[in-house]
Amino acid sequence: MAAAKSCTPVLGLILAVYMCCFFPAGAVRATGRLIDKGSLQINSNNVLNLKALVAIGRSTSHPHGVGMKVFHRDAPHLRKRRSEQATKYQDIRAGSMRKKDMHTPPGLESTTLRRQGDPAGQYYMPLQLGSPGRDILVILDTGSEILWVQCQPCNICGSQIIEPVFDPTISSTYHPLSCNSQHCLQGGVGFQTSCNVSQSLICKYQVRYGDSSTSIGDLSLDTLTVNSTTGVPTAITNFEFGCGHTNEGIEAEIGASGLMGLDRGNKSFISQISSHYPKVFFYCFPDRINNLNSSGFIHFGKSYVSQHLQYTPLIQNTASDFLSQFYHINVTGISVAGHLLPIPTAAFDIDASGNGGTIMDTGTALSALVDPALNALKEAFLNRTKNMKRVPDPSGIGLDICYNVSASSSQLPKVPTVELHVQGEGAKLRLSAENLLLIVSTDEKQVTVCLAIRNAGLVGMGRNVIGNYQQANHIVEVDIEKSRVGLADAHCAME
Ligand SMILES: *[C@@H]1O[C@H](CO)[C@@H](O)[C@H](O)[C@H]1NC(C)=O
Ligand SMILES: *[C@@H]1O[C@H](CO)[C@@H](O)[C@H](O)[C@H]1NC(C)=O
Ligand SMILES: *[C@@H]1O[C@H](CO)[C@@H](O)[C@H](O)[C@H]1NC(C)=O
Ligand SMILES: *[C@@H]1O[C@H](CO)[C@@H](O)[C@H](O)[C@H]1NC(C)=O
Ligand SMILES: *[C@@H]1O[C@H](CO)[C@@H](O)[C@H](O)[C@H]1NC(C)=O
Ligand SMILES: *[C@@H]1O[C@H](CO)[C@@H](O)[C@H](O)[C@H]1NC(C)=O
Ligand SMILES: *[C@@H]1O[C@H](CO)[C@@H](O)[C@H](O)[C@H]1NC(C)=O
User: Fold this and answer.
1) Contacts of 339 by beta carbon, 8 Å cutoff, 6+ apart
2) Per-residue confidence at 81, pLDDT binned at 50, 70, 90?
3) Which of 77, 104, 361, 388 is deepest in the core (most CB within 10 A)?
C-alpha cells in the first residue's frame, strides 16, 4: 500500500496530524500542496501554511495529549548557545563542580542495551523541572526507562546547552525519596536502586547504558512541566526521576540536561503519565541532511489518525523483564531497489534466550544489523552504486561503505531505496538517501558519505536496532495499548 503511495503529499500528512489534533475527524481537510519527497527543499509557501495551522491549533486548546517540539542536538540555535555557554561555565566545571572522588553506591549494576561512540547524535525535547520551573533539555530515548537530570552538587556533570545544572535545593516541590518508600523498594527494571542506611536514608539510583555511560544520584520526585504545542502547559506533579550527581560518558557529554526514558517500563515518562493519558505517542524527527535547522515534534497521549499509517504489531520479548520493556517489531525482510534480499529469517528472530529480533530505539543514532542481514544489504547496495567512487572507511566507527562525491552538488547522490519490511500488510520503513548516507567528512572539493548502518556485533548488540537516523522523516506511532507501531513516510521539518 505504501508503495502505491510513494507520491503521497507528504506535507499533507503533517498537516493532517495537526488537523486531527485540533479538529474533530473529518471536519476540515488539509490543503497542503504536493511535495515531491525526492526534492530536497520544502517550499516556503508550505512552511507558511504549516505555521498558520499550528497557530490555529494553539488557540484551540485540546484536552487530549501534549505535543512538543523536538530538535536535533546539532540544530544551529542549540549549537550557538552551547558554544557561548562553554566558555562561560568552563571554569566552574574544571574546578569545584568536577570532583574526581566519585562514590558509586554498592550493588548498583544495571545496564541498558546499545550505544557506542555514537557519532550522529540525538533528538532533544525542552521541558521544565521543579517549582519555579527550570528549563531543561532531555534526550528522547525509547530504549530506556528512567528520566534522569544532572543535579547540583555535581560530582561529575557534562556541559549543558541550557545552563545552569538543576539545583534541587531551590525547587519548593523537590523531594528525595527515602529508602523505605514504595518507589525505592519497587525500583525499576532498566535501572537499580540501593540504600546504604549508614550513609543516608535517601534512595540511590544508578543507570548504566550500553556504552558504559552512567548516571548515579538520588531517586526523587518533583514537578515536571511540559509546554505543550497545543498551548496549555501541563504540570505533572510528583514525577519520579533521578537527580544525577555523577553523570559520566557520552550521555552526559552531549549537551543535554539529562535523558528521558520512553520504554514500556513502569517508571518511564509514558508510564508515569498513563493515569492521565492513554499509553500512546507519536513522533516525527527531521532528517539531518536538509533539515538540521528545523524542529520536529513528539506528541504523547494521543493517536496519530491517518490512513497513511501502516501498522505492525509490537512484539513482546518475554525472555526477561528487562528485554520485555523494549519496542520490538518483527522485521520480515529487507529490499534494495525493490528487490527482496536473500536473508535467512533467523537474522530477524528472537531466540530462546531473548537475543535477536529488532528494536526501535530513538536513543541510538545509527541502526545496526546482525551479520547476515548487513552483509546482504551491503552486497546489494554496492552492486547498485557501482558508478559511485568508493573510498576506504575514513569514519573510524566501522562504516565501511563510503563514497566521495563532488562538493559542488548540493544534493546527496542518488542511491537505491532500502526498505525494511515489517509484519503487517504493506508495512515498512522506507529509507531514502537522507536515512542511508551519513556525511563523515568534507573538504572544498569532495564530500565523503558512508552507508549509515552499522554491524550489530561490532557495536556490542546481539540484535537489530532501528536508530533515529533511519527513523527520521517518518511518523512513528508507538501504541502500547493497542500493542502496535504505526509507520508512514513524512516530511518532519516544521520550521
Ligand atoms: C555504607 O557507607 C559507609 C559510610 O560511608 C561505608 O563505610 C560502608 O562501607 C558502606 N556500606 C557498604 C555496604 O558499602
Ligand atoms: C511555551 O510555548 C510557547 C509557544 O510555543 C512559547 O511562546 C513560550 O515561550 C513557551 N514558554 C516557556 C516557559 O517555555
Ligand atoms: C509494574 O508495576 C506493576 C503495578 O505496580 C507491577 O505489578 C509490575 O510487577 C511492575 N512491573 C515491573 C516489571 O516491575
Ligand atoms: C542552517 O542554518 C544556517 C544558518 O543559521 C545555514 O548556514 C545552514 O545552511 C542551514 N542548514 C540547512 C541544512 O538548512
Ligand atoms: C514475524 O513475522 C513472520 C512472517 O509474518 C511470522 O512467521 C513470525 O511468526 C513473526 N514473529 C513473531 C515473533 O510474531
Ligand atoms: C546487481 O544489480 C543489477 C542492476 O543494476 C541487477 O540486475 C542484479 O540482479 C544485481 N545483482 C545482485 C547480486 O544483486
Ligand atoms: C575523499 O574526500 C575527502 C574529503 O571528504 C578527501 O580528504 C579524500 O582525500 C578523498 N579521497 C579520495 C580517494 O579522493
Assistant:
1) 380
2) very low
3) 361
Q: How far is CA 263 from CA 168, 216, 455, in A?
A: 26, 19, 23
| Cα 326 to Cα 105, 112, 139, 474, distances in angstroms | 27, 10, 17, 20
Closest ligand to C-alpha of residue 448 is 7
Distance, in Å, from the CA atom of 120 to the CA atom of 254, rounded to the nearest integer, reads 11
Q: What sign does the dihedral 230-286-419-281 (CA atoms) show?
A: negative
Q: What tens digit of pLDDT does each residue of 344-390 get? A: 999 999 999 999 999 999 988 899 999 999 999 999 999 999 999 99
Task: Name the closest ligand to CA 264.
Answer: 3
Compute the distance between CA of residue 207 and CA of residue 213 in angstroms, rounded to an integer.
Answer: 8
CB contact at 8 A, 256 and 157: no
**Residue 22 DSSP symbol:** H
With a pLDDT cut of 70, the percent of the chain lying above it is 76
Q: Could you tell me the distance, in angstroms and rounded to a whole number, from the CA of residue 293 to the centre of ligand 4?
A: 6
Model-wide pTM > 0.85? no
Hunting for cell 523541572 — which residue is that? 129
Ligand 3 atom nearest to 265, measured from its CA: 13
How far, in Å, CA of 97 to CA of 168, rounded?
A: 15
Contact (CB, 8 A) for 336 and 342: no
State how far the Cα of 119 lies from the Cα of 107, in Å rounded to an integer: 31
From CA 454, how far away is CA 370, in angstroms rounded?
9
User: For the purposes of burial, counting CB atoms within 10 Å of the CB of 441, is it exposed (0-12), middle (13-18) or buried (19 or more)?
Assistant: middle
What is the rounded CA–CA span in Å between residue 129 and residue 152?
Answer: 14
The preferred substitution site among 311, 332, 343 for testing ligand 5, maximizing ligand atoms within 8 Å of CB, is 332
Task: Indicate if ligand 7 lies below 6 Å from the C-beta of 441.
Answer: yes
pLDDT of residue 76: 59
pLDDT digits (tens, 9 = 90+) for 128-152: 999 999 999 999 999 999 999 999 9
Structure confidence by residue, pLDDT tens digits, 224-248:
998 776 667 788 999 999 999 999 9
Beta strand extents in 330-436 (DSSP E only): 331-336, 339-340, 358-360, 367-369, 389-391, 402-406, 418-422, 428-431
Q: How far is CA 223 from the centre of its chain?
A: 23
Alpha-carbon distance of 250 to 467, in angstroms, equals: 16
